[in-house]
Specification:
With 86 residues, the chain is mainly alpha-helical. The chain contains five helices and two strands.
Length: 86
C-alpha cells in the first residue's frame, strides 16, 4: 500500500533518523521531517548504504513541525471536536 508507514512515524517520534526507500516514504511530508528522514530511490542499495554511513553521527532532532502535524494527540483533535459538537 501507499499509506504512511507506522514504523517510520514511530522512529521519527522517538527522535531516530530513518533511512528509507522512496516507496516506503510515500505519504510522509518530507518538509516536516527535517534531516531525520533520508530518502533514496527504490532499489538503490548503494545509496541506501551511503546514507546510513553519512548520517551515522548526526544529532539533529525531529522538528517540532513533525509533532504538530503527525502526533496522535494532534491528529485526533478534529475527531474530538466533532464528537463535542454533535
Amino acid at each position: 500500500g501507499g499509506g504512511i508507514k507506522v514504523k517510520t512515524m514511530d522512529a521519527l517520534a522517538f527522535n531516530l533518523t530513518v533511512i528509507s526507500c522512496a516507496h516506503s516514504a510515500t505519504g510522509i511530508d518530507l518538509n516536516l521531517t527535517g534531516e531525520k528522514l533520508k530518502v533514496c530511490p527504490d532499489n538503490s542499495w548503494q545509496e541506501f548504504c551511503r546514507l546510513i554511513l553519512a548520517t551515522w553521527d548526526e544529532e539533529d532532532d525531529t522538528p517540532d513541525a513533525f509533532f504538530k502535524y503527525y502526533h496522535w494527540s494532534k491528529v485526533i483533535q478534529p475527531f474530538l471536536e466533532k464528537i463535542k459538537s454533535d
